[in-house]
Specification:
The protein is mainly alpha-helical. The protein has four helices and two strands. Helix 1 packs antiparallel against helix 4. It is globular.
Length: about 140
């Protein structure tokens, strides 16, 4: 998520009107979703930072955070390292999942690891777009403080 490196630290926790979450949440969410989707499907792939799962899984919100949250540096580093870990451990992408991944109310059913990787790429792109929008809006908010 290359757009993260251009953001000021002050922008990471601002939640503009009309947005459900912050830049920190969207970046952490991308990391956690990849970890939790791939860990059960790739032998030897262990979730890094399991303590982040309750902060960033679907249905969570920064408004519910109590205590420490990972720094922007920690999230950016984890995302960079995740790519290398996936490449090393991926192996055969055409294998069947242990059970199909059903998205939404049976809107999409994914049966292979390759299909899951494609979905995760789309998912990351969606949140990258949200982060881009949040970056632009929060930059103006920071300027006016």
């Amino acid at each position: 998520m290359s757009n993260l490196k251009h953001l000021d630290e002050a922008q990471w926790d601002l939640k503009p009107p009309g947005f459900n979450n912050t830049i920190r949440w969207n970046a952490g969410h991308n990391f956690v979703i990849v970890e939790t989707f791939l860990a059960p499907e790739i032998d030897g792939y262990e979730i890094v930072h399991p303590e982040w799962v309750p902060l960033f899984e679907d249905g969570t919100s920064p408004a519910d955070w109590d205590g420490d949250v990972p720094s922007s540096h920690a999230i950016r580093s984890a995302l960079r390292e995740q790519v290398d870990r996936i490449s090393v451990q991926l192996g055969d992408r055409d294998v069947k999942l242990s059970k199909p991944l059903v998205i939404g109310d049976n809107v999409l059913e994914i049966e292979t690891l390759e299909g899951m990787i494609q979905f995760l790429s789309w998912h990351e792109g969606t949140h990258a777009g949200i982060i881009n929008a949040l970056g632009k809006i929060t930059a103006t908010m920071v300027e006016h403080e």
